[in-house]
Amino acid sequence: MALTIGIGADHAGKELKQLVVEMLKLSEHTVVDYGVAADCKTSVDYPDYAAAVAADVASGKLDAGILICGTGIGMQITANKYPGIRAAVAWDELSAKLAKEHNDANILCLGARTTNHMRATELVKIWLDTPFGGSRHKLRLDKIREVERKVSAIATKH
Ligand code: RB5
Questions:
Q1: Given the DSSP bridges, would you call strands 30-33 and 87-89 parallel, antiparallel or unpaired?
Q2: Is 69 marked active-site?
Q3: What is the CATH number of the domain that holds 98?
Q4: Is 10 in the pocket of ligand 1 (CB under 6 A)?
Q5: Which of 29, 102, 117, 137 is catalytic?
Q6: Quick check: 128 and 101 in contact, CB under 8 A?
Q7: What is the number of domains present in the chain?
Q8: Which domain holds residue 16?
Q9: Using a 6 Å cutoff on CB, does residue 89 contact ligand 1?
Q10: Which of 8, 132, 24 lies closest to 68 in space, CA to CA?
């Protein structure tokens, strides 16, 4: 199924982002680039890009997202603040596959300083091509939703 995928990166991830954008342009998917621009000369803050992409995945404007920083960790932490977001860092073929099969990750996070760039493009393909496993994994995602509801109830009390 052709998806609309948002992609964002900070200064550490901008070159890998370009590579992933070029790869996705050759696929059936539509890619929306949230920056930072490849020719940006300054360092930028990863939460700004993570929040922009995660908000649009959470609202349904995007089907999925890809976020790239030095390690993928800062992007993952930020994106997962949004209800309904399941952002996962993948570092090898198995983590890319299981992020979808078990966790139905709707945002893939990559580390441009920790993962070979050509390999990272392969991880994107694996994540996109792997279907969600459903069944017992669906029950666990329902529990994550329940945790989100409880956290939100606590937050509104304070
Ligand atoms: C930027 O230097 C770096 O901290 C960032 O790209 C990322 O690795 C954070 O998680």
A1: unpaired
A2: yes
A3: 3.40.1400.10
A4: yes
A5: 102
A6: no
A7: 1
A8: 4-133
A9: no
A10: 8
pLDDT in tens, 14-44: 999 999 999 999 999 999 999 999 999 999 9
Q: Is the CB of 77 under 6 A from ligand 1?
A: no
- What are 91-144's pLDDT values in tens digits? 999 999 999 999 999 999 999 999 999 999 999 999 999 999 999 999 999 999
Q: Is the CB of 69 under 6 A from ligand 1?
A: yes
Q: Whose CA is nearest to atom 4 of ligand 1?
A: 70
- Centre of ligand 1 to C-alpha 129, Å, is 28
- Our answer to whether residue 29 is catalytic in this structure is no
Residue 22 lies in a domain: yes
Six-digit token pair at 148? 């989100």
Going from the Cα of 3 to the center of ligand 1, the distance in angstroms, rounded, reads: 28
Residue 155 lies in a domain: no
Residue 81 covered by a domain: yes
Q: Structure tokens of 55? A: 């908000």
Distance (Å) of CA 134 to CA 69, 89, 100, 104, 156: 30, 20, 10, 9, 31
Domain membership of residue 121 (yes or no) is yes
Strand partners, 108: 66, 88
